[in-house]
Amino acid sequence: MKFIIAIPLDTRPEQYARLCELRAVFAQVCNHLAPAVQASRIWNRVTLHHLHYHALREQFPGLGSQMVCNAIYAVSKMARLVYQHPKSPYNVAAKDARPLPLLRFAESCPVYFDRHTLSIKEEQLSLFTMDGRMHFELTLAPAKRVVFAQAKLREIALKERTDQRFELSFYLESEGALVTNLQPSPPPVKALSLAEIVPDYVSVEVTP
Fold first, then answer.
1. Smallest Cα–Cα separation from 4: which of 159, 164, 118, 144?
2. CB–CB of 156/169 below 8 Å?
3. In whole angstroms, what separates CA 63 from the centre of its chain?
4. pTM of the complete model
5. What angle do the packed helices 45-59 and 13-40 form, to 10 degrees?
6. SS3 category, 127
7. Is the pLDDT of residue 176 over 80?
8. Which end of the chain lies in a sparser environment, N or C, as judged by fewer CB atoms within 10 Å?
């Protein structure tokens, strides 16, 4: 059983600017790593970490060690989708000799967090920025508290909505049913194509 809990952030102008800066540098790291993935055909998260982590830390010291790890995760996740999706024309299983396309991340890409870069204690949410931790008051409905307490957290993504407001999306999963009135995420009603799955913040650039 999967759940998505979205928490909008009530940011002041200065906080909004800090989150935009974080997102911009996060996208820069992704775009710095993507050509190496394209050339090497390696996108395993652990292997990418061993190959590129130290160089990325040196080039982007302000982003912090764990956030660099999260950027590596973002590239690995998107590469798995584009290069391994059964319906992808770029699926490496086809053993096509053509070069792989280049993945390019827009500055609107989500920023991934984890337990090292985001924490929730009582009524406070704290998250990493390049200029120190940012804190928000957090009030969760009882049903959401049950999910947070009992389900396993799989992913945290910071995204900007169309109304220019940042929102944290928590992706959680439980092996069993939870006693809560919060509805789980519905399963997809059909098998989607690659074009329907690749988010609009990623472009797939094919080498002529």
1. 144
2. yes
3. 15
4. 0.90
5. 120
6. strand
7. no
8. C
